[in-house]
Design goal:
Elements lengths: L13 E5 L6 H12 L2 E4 H11 L2 H12 L5 H12 L8 E4 L5 H13 L6 E6 L2 H9 L1 E4 L5 E3 L19 E2 L6 H15 L2 H7 L3 E5 L4 H15 L2
Parallel strand pairs: 1-3, 1-4, 2-3, 4-8
Antiparallel strand pairs: 5-6, 5-7
Bound molecules: adenosine monophosphate.
Organism: Frigidibacter mobilis
Protein name: Adenylate kinase
Family: Belongs to the adenylate kinase family.
Length: 230
C-alpha cells in the first residue's frame, strides 16, 4: 500500500486496535493503513474469506460467527500466523479484531518475541454500548473497495454510488443485526475487554474517546501512532 501522506515511521510498528463491535476499528485501521503505509490485519476479514472459500477452518467458524460468538483460538491463531508470514507485514501492522482472548494475547506476545519484536501500542477505542448496537445494525460496505457506510449516519453522497470508487454494489455482513450484535458485545465484555488490563500492565495501553467524528478520531489516533513509533 502506498503511503498517501508521505509519512513514514522510524520502525515497523505493531499496533492493536481494541474495542467492541461498531467502535470503528476497521474504518480507523484502513485510514491508518493509507496514512502510514501500515498493513491492516483483520481476523474477521480473514475468517470471512475462509468461510467464503469453504476451507475446513471456514466451515468450522461459520456457525460460531453467525451466532456472534468467538471462533476457537486454535483456528484464529492458525489463520493469523499464516497471514503474518506474508512479506508485506514487515512494513508494520495494525491488528483489527485480534487478539480477543487471553490465549490469543499470550500467543501474539510469544510470536512477536520470536522475531525480536513486541507490541508497540494497544489502542482502546472507548465507546458507549447502547450506541454500538445501532451503529452495527445499520452498517454496510462497498463491495468493490470496502468503504464503510451506514443507513442513518453515513450514506453515500450520491445515492447508491460509492464516494470512494464509484462502485454501485454494496454488501452487508450477515452478523450485523441487532440480535447478533448484542451477542458480540457480550463476548467482547466477557473475553476481550480484560485485555485492556493486560496491555496496561505491559505499559503500552492508549485510550481514545471513539464516540465522536470519524476524522477527529483518526487525527487523535494518528498522533498516537506517530508518537509511539519513533
Ligand atoms: P469482526 O469482523 O472483527 O467483527 O469479527 C467477526 C466475527 O469473526 C466475530 O464475531 C467472531 O465470531 C469472529 N472473530 C474475528 N476475530 C476473532 C478473534 N480474534 N477471535 C475469535 N473470533 C474472532
Amino acid at each position: 500500500m502506498e503511503n498517501m501522506s508521505g509519512q513514514t515511521l522510524a520502525s515497523p510498528a505493531v499496533l492493536i486496535l481494541l474495542g467492541p463491535p461498531g467502535a470503528g476499528k476497521g474504518t480507523q485501521a484502513r485510514m491508518l493503513e493509507e496514512r502510514f503505509g501500515l498493513v491492516q490485519l483483520s481476523t474477521g476479514d480473514l475468517l470471512r474469506a475462509a468461510v467464503g472459500a469453504g476451507t475446513p477452518a471456514g466451515l468450522a467458524a461459520k456457525a460460531v460467527m453467525e451466532a456472534g460468538g468467538l471462533v476457537s483460538d486454535e483456528i484464529v491463531l492458525a489463520i493469523l500466523k499464516d497471514r503474518m508470514a506474508g512479506p508485506d507485514v514487515a512494513k508494520g501492522i495494525i491488528l483489527d479484531g485480534f487478539p480477543r482472548t487471553d490465549g490469543q494475547a499470550g500467543a501474539l506476545d510469544a510470536l512477536l518475541a520470536e522475531a525480536g519484536q513486541r507490541v508497540t501500542a494497544a489502542i482502546s477505542l472507548e465507546v458507549d454500548d447502547a450506541a454500538m448496537i445501532a451503529r452495527v445494525a445499520g452498517r454496510y460496505t462497498c463491495a468493490g473497495c470496502g468503504e464503510g457506510y451506514h443507513d442513518e449516519f453515513k450514506q453515500p453522497r450520491a445515492e447508491g454510488v460509492c464516494d470512494k470508487c464509484g462502485g454501485t454494489a454494496f454488501k452487508r455482513r450477515s452478523d450485523d443485526n441487532a440480535e447478533t450484535a448484542r451477542a458480540r458485545l457480550e463476548a467482547y465484555h466477557a473475553q476481550t475487554a480484560p485485555l485492556i488490563a493486560h496491555y496496561e500492565r505491559a505499559g503500552v495501553l492508549e485510550r481514545i474517546d471513539a464516540m465522536g467524528d470519524i476524522d477527529a478520531i483518526a487525527g487523535a489516533l494518528g498522533q498516537i501512532v506517530a508518537r509511539v513509533s519513533v
